[in-house]
Amino acid sequence: MFDKEVRLPNPQTSTALGQLLNNRVSTKEYHGPEDLDEQTISDLLWAAFGKNKKGTRTIPTALNQKELGVFLVSDKGAWRYNGEENTLSKVSDEDILPYISEQDYVKEASLHFIYTGSNREYSPLHAGSAYQNVYLAAEEKGLNSVVRAYIDKEGLKKP
Q1: Residue 89 CB neighbour total at 10 angstroms
Q2: How far apart are CA 78 and CA 41, in angstroms?
């Protein structure tokens, strides 16, 4: 297809997606909770694992497995997102932020998404697709985001 080395043309960054990708950064400075209305939260969750106009999910899933769980967490509790119905169901009144905020900067964020899955092989791929979509949706809205893996998994099992 190509010789040993090929100088490719510059990427096209003038499209909406190109601009989002070109501007996207991970950051540890967040907006306050007053900046995030229900529409913004809905848009971010839909980007993560919502149902699109074709009736499929906003992310690809290996073998069409739709087992990804998306949870919204704040100091007021935790909610599970239902992408089929675009609804949130409260699953806990407990403040679980101490279990997911081992890094100091995390305590400043008003909302957190937790991605869960039961398939060791595919769930990490699904979570990666979901948080990439959230990154892009957040960038489009002028919001900051960062993906994290430092959580107290054993502590989360207790509540």
Answers
A1: 10
A2: 14
pTM: 0.86
Q: Could you tell me the two tokens for 122?
A: 């595919």
Residue with tokens 């960062």: 146
Q: Averaged in consecutive runs of 10 residues, what is the pLDDT profile of the chain (159 residues)?
A: 87 90 78 74 96 92 87 92 96 87 73 91 94 92 83 74
pLDDT at 90: 97
Sketch out the chain's domains with CATH numbers.
Answer: 32-157 (3.40.109.10)
